[in-house]
Design a protein that fits this description.
heterodimer, A: 231 residues, alpha+beta, four-stranded mixed beta sheet, two-stranded antiparallel sheet, 5 helices, 6 strands, elongated, disordered C terminus, B: 426 residues, five-stranded mixed beta sheet, 15 helices
């Protein structure tokens, strides 16, 4: 998961004693908090608060097994934001997003916070994928969710090609370090590496095309989504 | 997919590193694609460890701090406008802090349980604790367990030992640098202050979690997707921020892996920060020096030389015979070529090993004025920018190499090759 870890820069006030100014910590309004975590990124939001149970893991989103692939690919179209354990503290700048320990564990929403879908970490994958797909449909002109299988296939191919390069580079290294190197073999390996690199570039270009999406203009976005996935 | 390990690294992790980022832009939408692989599971012990408020080894007593060689456990300023409390607020948890003679160290590292039955780790740990023991009046660590305060003390010792070694290697003295509070011009040859020519002590943040790492970088610097960030601090001095969780996700769970990365990064910062010259030192030299530091922790753990790793070859860490083979077959970049390297892509697997070997050879030259050489290759050239500065430094490297070693690049290359052939064994 490619998480971002926004930190709000508090306004500084003069320290009444000592020499340096000190930052005052205060909770922002929900709108301010959303603006702060979204920044300039127009992608829809996937916002997770760390908790003492899933801390140090991505367990809130990823379960055991290969079906994480779908979550991981869909998450690439989101601005994935992780907030700290103390976000439930009333003075935390982003507290309005998760006011207390009873707050949901994560939510999906458009970049401005609308169409919010609250989710819990022990929810089903179907709930999660349905929610992600709904928000993506609202955020982009074309729902990218159905493309995930193709994207995944190409990522897997890139992984395999990368493994091939490692293998060929190892062969080349062994030859170069050997007592009697076969220069023709080294040249052949170098050609193979160049060929595999070209294939990787082609796959990356194809993935880029699949992942490149036009956002839905804000005015067209539907105002809300029934929170069926909410628990 | 083959997820076999070698030297602690899984193939998956190697692939993850190798996958470049693809950035797609369409009508103001930027979709950032990261690694195409899959998340690894974290530790079962998921709660943030609560740190003891008072250090059990010194009980925060002034005499104990002095005995340990510490200035204090904070709070203290770190860089322009930022104090220890600001970092704690950004991360959202308490850090343990210590100020030593040359460093300000902060950590969120939690208790480390040593790998059972690993004789290398046991030996290393025993030796380090033996050196640490005299610094404390009461010192009875629990066997096989390194608590957060002990980790702080160990890293403080490691950092100071590295500083001592760097100073000794290049025969640096306090007179080589400006003194505390000395008013000097911005391009003063002795730098701006007493800390290797910098006004501030080096700051090192060793962070347990990726979120800690991400929050510090996001708050004050630029988010990065590596496990370490090395930066010049606002106002001067060098900062290192390192994340343990990333290394664990790459398959390196031992503290030695973190230690070896820290050792390498600290050396990079020593060279890059020297006299506040600003990162312009030759890549091959600082990388070779960093590999020496990492391999001193554990020869199998020169993690930044990951391109030298070979799957299914448990002897790939034995660099001497590999370099000997490369030299015999003339598959090494010439000295002049390597001196011109400016990007990591140019340092292939063989390149890393060759840089390490060349710096090892260079440091072993008896009677040579290594300080002049180091100062020469890190000339600040503050009045020059960009390519002009790079060109001036390259010319300075050529010049100072002749001055100090009485050899041009071709002669250095030939002498090093002879040494490799005479010294390394298959």
């Amino acid at each position: 998961m490619d998480w971002s870890y926004p930190v709000h820069k508090s306004a500084e006030v003069e320290r009444t004693s000592g020499t340096a100014p000190v930052a005052m910590r205060r909770a922002l309004s929900r709108e301010e908090a959303l603006r702060s975590i979204a920044g300039q990124d127009p992608r829809p939001l996937l916002v997770l608060r760390e908790c003492s149970v899933c801390n140090k893991t991505d367990d809130a989103l990823l379960k055991g097994g290969s079906e994480n692939d779908r979550t991981l690919v869909l998450a690439r179209w989101f601005n994935c934001v992780k907030l700290p354990l103390d976000v439930v503290d009333p003075t935390h700048p982003f507290n309005a997003l998760f006011p207390n320990d009873e707050s949901e564990h994560l939510f999906l929403a458009l970049a401005d916070g609308s169409s919010k879908i609250p989710l819990e970490s022990d929810g089903s994958r179907t709930e999660l994928w349905t929610g992600m797909s709904r928000v993506l449909e609202l955020a982009y002109e074309k729902n990218p969710a159905p493309a995930y299988a193709d994207v995944l296939k190409r990522f897997t191919k890139i992984d395999i090609l990368d493994a091939k390069i490692i293998e060929e580079e190892a062969k080349k290294g062994l030859e170069m370090e050997s007592l009697r190197p076969d220069r023709k073999k080294v040249d052949d390996v170098e050609r193979k590496i160049a060929d595999v690199r070209a294939q990787i570039d082609a796959e990356k270009a194809a993935v880029e095309k699949l992942m490149t999406l036009a956002p839905r203009p804000p005015a067209v976005a539907k105002p809300s989504v029934p929170a069926k996935a909410a628990r | 997919m083959d997820t076999s390990t070698q030297g602690g690294r899984t193939r998956l992790a190697l692939l993850r590193i190798r996958m470049s980022r693809i950035v797609a832009v369409a009508v103001a939408v930027v979709v950032v694609l990261v690694e195409s692989s899959f998340a690894l599971q974290g530790s079962n012990d998921s709660k943030d460890e609560t740190f003891e408020l008072v250090d059990p080894y010194t009980t925060n007593q002034r005499t104990s701090l002095e005995r340990a060689g510490y200035v204090g456990f904070g709070p203290f300023p770190l860089w322009d406008g930022v104090r220890t409390s600001d970092v704690e607020e950004a991360i959202g948890r308490k850090l343990l802090w210590v100020e030593t003679a040359h460093f300000k160290l902060g950590t969120t590292l939690e208790t480390y349980k040593s790998a059972k039955g690993d004789p290398r780790e046991e030996k290393r740990s025993k030796e380090e604790l033996k050196r640490l023991e005299p610094k404390f009046a009461k010192f009875k660590p629990t066997a096989g367990k390194v608590d957060p305060w002990l980790r702080l003390h160990l890293y403080a010792q490691r950092l100071e030992e590295q500083h001592t070694e760097f100073v000794k290697t290049f025969s640096l003295t306090p007179e080589d640098f400006a003194t505390e509070n000395e008013k000097v011009p911005f391009d003063a040859p002795r730098g701006q202050g007493p800390y290797l020519g910098q006004v501030r002590k080096a700051v090192v943040l060793l962070l347990e979690k990726q979120s800690h790492f991400g929050r510090v970088n996001t708050r004050w610097f630029t988010p990065v997707d590596h496990q370490s960030a090395r930066l010049r601090m606002p106002g001067g001095g060098m900062l290192l921020i390192t994340c343990a969780e990333t290394l664990v996700k790459w398959g390196y769970e031992q503290d030695a892996a973190l230690h070896s990365v820290v050792a390498a990064d600290v050396v990079y910062n020593f060279v890059d920060g020297l006299r506040d010259h600003g990162y312009w030192s030759p890549l091959w030299f600082k990388t070779g020096l960093a590999h020496i530091a990492s391999r001193k922790v554990d020869e199998k753990l020169a993690i930044y030389a990951f391109r030298s790793v070979r799957q299914h070859d448990t002897d790939a860490w034995k660099w001497e015979p590999r370099v000997l083979g490369l030299v015999a077959n003339d598959y090494v970049p010439k000295w002049a070529e390597m001196a011109a390297f400016t990007s990591w892509d140019q340092l292939t697997g063989p390149g890393h090993m060759v840089a390490w070997s060349r710096v090892t050879w260079l440091l072993g030259q008896r009677g040579m004025d290594l300080k002049s050489w180091l100062f020469g290759i890190t000339e600040p050239f503050h009045d020059l920018k960009g390519d002009a500065r790079a060109r001036a430094l390259r010319a300075r490297e050529v010049e100072v190499t002749v001055q100090v070693f009485a050899k041009n690049f071709a002669e250095m290359d030939a002498a090093w090759r002879r040494w490799v052939q005479d010294t390394y064994k298959r």
